[in-house]
Design a protein that fits this description.
Elements (H helix, E strand, L loop, with lengths): L19 H13 L13 E5 L2 E4 L4 E4 L2 H4 L8 H13 L11 H13 L6 E6 L2 H16 L3 E5 L8 H6 L17 E4 L19 H14 L5 E6 L15 H11 L3 E5 L23 E4 L10 E6 L18 H16 L2 H22 L3 E7 L2 E6 L10 H14 L1 E2 L2 E2 L3 E4 L7 H21 L1
Parallel strand pairs: 3-13, 5-6, 5-7, 7-8, 8-9
Antiparallel strand pairs: 1-2, 2-3, 4-10, 9-10, 11-12, 12-15, 14-15
Helix pairs in contact: 3-9, 4-9, 10-12, 11-12
Bound molecules: pyridoxal-5'-phosphate.
């Protein structure tokens, strides 16, 4: 920690969390809510939020490095989003854009046409969640191509519905007892260079993970003419905030183009300005055929979107549909969110604050034996915790202890992958809040290091 820097952030701290009200709500939650949620997080009971600060039910304030699982890119309760929601709620809540017509969904689809990569006409299917945006992708890709197979990646997270789950491959707990999922998805290793699945080193590997797909998968057991699409996260989220090397997507796209295989990107977490661009794939100079979006797209209201080249969406009426996808309130919240991202230059702020955070985090990498890797783009940053730098043995318990200790100090952050944690605050974060949050994480790293 920079000893000369004095935090200019003062958070309201009433008592050590969890306080009595939080404990009581957790007890009541456990009695009535399904236990499949929250595998290991601390008992944080949220009451309200504003910008980058959230408050628990006992009155403690916290800096948010999690953005409500990546959904609150413009910060909590941004007045313009709240106004758009309230105004729309007074006008019309629902009638279904899939059977009738709304101007709200048209405006949103027009905007999505503009902000997603590629200057060609696109079509949009609006739904209610990230998983649904993946379901629509899988169905439209099969419909259009009349091919049954897909290629996905180890470490991927694409959601939990049976179709989306069949693409997900970041942890077996997400899949245990659910097989058979949708058949036809083959997984290949993602370019996770810190832990290369082939035990090779970049750049000497010369992108073997791409060549492998052609030399082994497409030549030996998945006929390419039967593959509809590949689905990939430009930067893996749940799998550990893994940033692939610069040329990875370009090489993959070239390979799949050769066989007429569609390139679909899951921007559910990485989109909406999080990495400093509307879509993270833009960092890699690739124009995808299909883009799936959700989370921050709805500004806190359920919304998913599957956006693709016009000619791909040639399915006929009735072949896919939804009742509560793309509600007027969700569309207005989304349009307001995008206006704010533009007006307040939040993509630019994501780059600025992200660069600053990376500078500090890289210092940690030099200073602390347990900080194995630091990687990210914009405000999608992962810190990987290891037992030691030489063996790189994953240390998920320590990663968890660090974020739990930081929570007690006033920071909300969550894990990713086996042993990483995320730095993914709302894009409105200031330098002071970033520093204060990083200070809490660094102090926690020092504490666990001292204990060892
Ligand atoms: C990259 C990615 N895709 C899809 C999903 C699924 O989204 P949802 O939880 O809204 O179904 C998530 C959720 O974390 C995600 O991170």
């Amino acid at each position: 920690m920079n000893k000369n820097r004095k935090s200019r952030v003062s958070l309201k701290r009433v008592l050590d969390p969890p306080g009595p009200k939080a404990k009581d709500w957790v007890k009541r939650d456990k009695r009535v809510l399904s236990p499949c949620n929250r595998p290991y997080y601390y008992p944080f009971v949220v009451e309200k939020g504003s910008g980058c600060v959230i408050e628990d039910v006992d009155g403690n304030e916290y800096i948010d490095f999690n953005s409500g699982l990546g959904a609150m890119n413009v910060g909590h309760c941004h007045p313009e989003v709240v106004k758009a929601i309230c105004d729309q709620a007074k006008r019309l809540l629902h009638y279904s854009y899939t059977d009738f017509y709304y101007r709200y969904s048209v405006e949103l689809a027009e905007k999505l046409n503009k902000i997603t990569p590629g200057v060609f006409q696109k079509k949009v299917f609006l739904s209610g969640s990230g998983a649904e945006s993946i379901e629509a992708f899988a169905k439209v890709a099969r419909w259009h191509s009349q091919r049954p197979m897909f290629i996905a990646y180890t470490g991927a997270f694409h959601g939990r519905s049976m179709g989306a789950l069949s693409f997900t491959a970041s942890s077996t707990v997400q899949k245990a007892r659910y097989f058979p999922t949708m058949p036809g998805v083959v997984h290949v290793p993602y370019a996770y260079c810190y832990r290369c699945p082939y035990k090779l080193t970049f750049p000497d590997c010369n992108y073997w993970c791409v060549d492998f797909i052609e030399d082994y998968v497409l030549k030996k057991f998945v006929p390419p003419e039967e593959v509809a699409a590949t689905l990939i996260e430009p930067i893996q989220g749940e799998g550990g905030y893994v940033v692939p090397p610069k040329d990875y997507h370009r090489r993959l796209k070239k390979l799949y183009d050769k066989y007429g295989i569609l390139y679909a990107v899951d921007e559910v977490q990485s989109g909406m300005g999080r990495t400093g661009k509307w879509c993270a794939i833009e960092h890699f100079g690739v124009v995808p055929d299909i883009v799936c979006m959700s989370k921050a797209l709805g500004g806190g209201i359920s919304l998913g979107a599957t956006i693709g080249r016009e000619e791909i969406f040639d399915w006929k009426a009735g072949s896919h549909c939804t009742t509560l996808g793309g509600t007027p309130v969700a569309c207005q919240a989304s349009l307001a969110t995008m206006r704010i991202i533009e007006k307040e230059k939040l993509k630019e702020n994501a780059v600025k604050q992200g660069q600053y955070a990376m500078k500090r985090l890289n210092e940690w990498k030099d200073e602390y034996e347990i900080v194995g890797d630091v990687r990210g783009k914009g405000l999608m940053i992962g810190v990987e915790i290891v037992k030691d730098k030489k063996t790189k043995a994953p240390d998920g318990d320590t990663a968890h202890e660090i974020i739990e200790r930081a929570w007690k100090k006033g920071l909300v952050a969550i894990g990713a992958g086996e042993c990483s944690f995320r730095i993914a605050p709302p894009l409105v974060i200031t330098r002071d809040l970033m520093d204060a949050g990083l200070d809490m994480l660094e102090e926690s790293i020092k504490e666990v290091t001292r204990k060892k």
